[in-house]
Amino acid sequence: MIAMALRLEKLAPILPSRDIAVTEAFYARIGFETDFVDADYLLMTRDGAEVHFFHAPALDPATNDHGAYLRPSDVDAFSDQVAALGLPREAGFPRFWPAEDKPWGMREAALWDPDGNLIRAGQEIAGWEDPHG
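RESULT FIELD:
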């Protein structure tokens, strides 16, 4: 039986990075701060969000299947912050898709970092009802 007094406070992704310094600079551009960095590991935080990176120099961004889901208090404000970077929408890494309503009741943006890690950011659409019941 699972103890009900136990609370899971956070779950933080651990993502690959071909170049720790490049990853650190990229995430700093969207407001993350470095809590720890060395040649093989990076830990960055912003507000309640935490993300870890491990050095993976042989990583191919085009085949990277790592990612995380971010729940900002305002997905449109987050989308605007990332859009200000002027990242392309369609090709290469990094790239960005601005926030839009999804058929599963979420408003989501999608950011691929320089290593192909997918960071989806979303929040529930107010008043959305599942058409399937």
